[in-house]
Every structure is written in structure tokens, then in C-alpha cells.
Amino acid sequence: MSFLRFLLAAVLVLALVAVILSAVAPTRMELTRDIYIQAPLQQVWQQVSTLQQMDRWSPWNELDPNMKKTIEGTDGTVGAVMHWEGNQDAGSGKQTISAVEPLHRIDLKIEFLKPFRSEADSYIQVDDSGGGTQVTWGFSSVTPRPFNIVYIFMDMEKLIGQDYEKGLRRLKELTEQEHLSAPS
Fold first, then answer.
1. Are 110 and 95 in contact (CB under 8 A)?
2. What is the pTM of this model?
3. Which structural domain, as residue segments, surrounds residue 50?
4. Contact status, residue 41 vs residue 34, Cβ threshold 8 Å
5. What is the pLDDT of residues 50-104, one digit of tens each?
6. From CA 14, how far away is CA 24, in angstroms rounded?
7. What is the CATH number of the domain that holds 140?
8. Which helix (H) or strand (E) holds 71?
């Protein structure tokens, strides 16, 4: 009987700790990363304004080189959707263009289906900047309680931020290389 009391007490303590951690952990995560690209805004916009072009510099392609992707709708317009199905590292889900402000910003709604269900909003913004283009890639997600406890144990800002930085570096290399090789 004393073992059952101990077990019950341990479960209650763990539940109380989870409730407290959930109460103090943030439920919202936001991050942005920026990069300066030495290419005209129009050229950078071409690289970020469609799902197909974004896929060229996506930092997540290396998770599964055999990932299956399909695009529905008119790419580059509100409502266009890219579905992906990959291995356990890449997971599966879809991203939908939710808003477009031509030559300035594209907004995306991301729905992850595997390995776990979640949603996020993302955007890419381009601004003319001193002979080149400033690119900002942003992300926000809300994680309901008690699942928000993950933010205490994992630095999601760092993990996702590293992927965004890698993607922006690829975008910069691709765009600047194409800019330099374009006929004058």
C-alpha cells in the first residue's frame, strides 16, 4: 500500500510541476532573420515570390533529398499550396500562400502534419536598400498549454533560426550568382 501512495504522490508532484511549467512557459514563439543581397529588388522578389522558387533555396531539402512535393493552384498567388511528404526528419505538411504584396512581402500559413501537428505563420519581406535588397524572413507560432513546456527544454528560436539563416545564405548565393551572370 505504501508503494501505491508513493506512486500517487509522485504522479501528483509531476502533474503539479507540469502545470507550473506550463503556466510560466511562453505560448508564442516569434523570430526573424535578415540578410542583405547585392541584387536588385525585382530579382530577389523573383526568388521569394513563388513556392517553386522558394523551394530552390529551402534549408529543409537536405533532410530528405527524395521528398515528394506537389503544388496546387496558381503559384505565387493567394491560395497556392505546396504539399510535402518526406522521411521522418522532413515530415509532411503543406504551406499555403495567404497574402501577397507584390515586390514587397509574401505571407505563408504552414501546417505540419507529421511528425506532429502544428501550425505557424511565416513571411518573407524584401526592401530596396542602397543598391541591393534587404530580406527579412519571419516566423510565428502559438503552442497551447501544456505543450508549450517544450520551449523551456528546447531553444526553438535557435533551432529554427539556424535553418532560416542557412536558407537566407542560400538565397543570397543563388540570387547574387544569377545577378552576376545575367547579361548587362
1. yes
2. 0.80
3. 2-181
4. no
5. 999 999 999 988 889 899 999 999 999 999 999 999 998 889 999 999 999 999 9
6. 15
7. 3.30.530.20
8. strand 68-72
